[in-house]
Design brief:
The chain is of the alpha+beta class. The chain contains two helices and three strands; from the N terminus they run H-E-H-E-E. The protein has a domain of 67 residues: Ribosomal Protein S8, Chain: A, domain 1, CATH 3.30.1370.
């Protein structure tokens, strides 16, 4: 049995390539990223007491997925929001005078 160091070429044939973790983009960029980013950008400039009215028919996104994505993204920006929906529209607004305690 050999006990010497192995050369790089004599190791097992791995199926997957190794990469440095520090080189990975660790941000979440889901399929609705551009939509959510746009909504949050408009929400940041919205006046207190006003909500964004977003027509559901124009989105092509299920309401539950939209609500989840917008809450997740707002939380990462330390923005507290509220949402409401009816048959035609999705409404989102900032909670008055509050931020998260991170």
């Amino acid at each position: 049995m050999a006990t010497g160091p192995k050369s790089k070429d004599s190791g097992p044939n791995f199926k997957y390539r190794r990469v440095e973790v520090s080189s990975l983009d660790r941000g979440r960029r889901g399929k609705h990223h551009d939509l959510i980013t746009g909504i949050l950008a408009e929400l940041e400039t919205a006046q207190p007491g006003s909500a964004l009215e977003i027509p559901l028919a124009d989105l092509g996104v299920e309401l539950a997925n939209l609500r989840s994505a917008i809450h997740r993204a707002a939380g990462s920006k330390e923005m507290l929001i509220e949402t409401l929906a009816d048959e035609k529209n999705f409404y989102v607004w900032k909670q008055a005078g509050r931020t998260t305690d991170k």
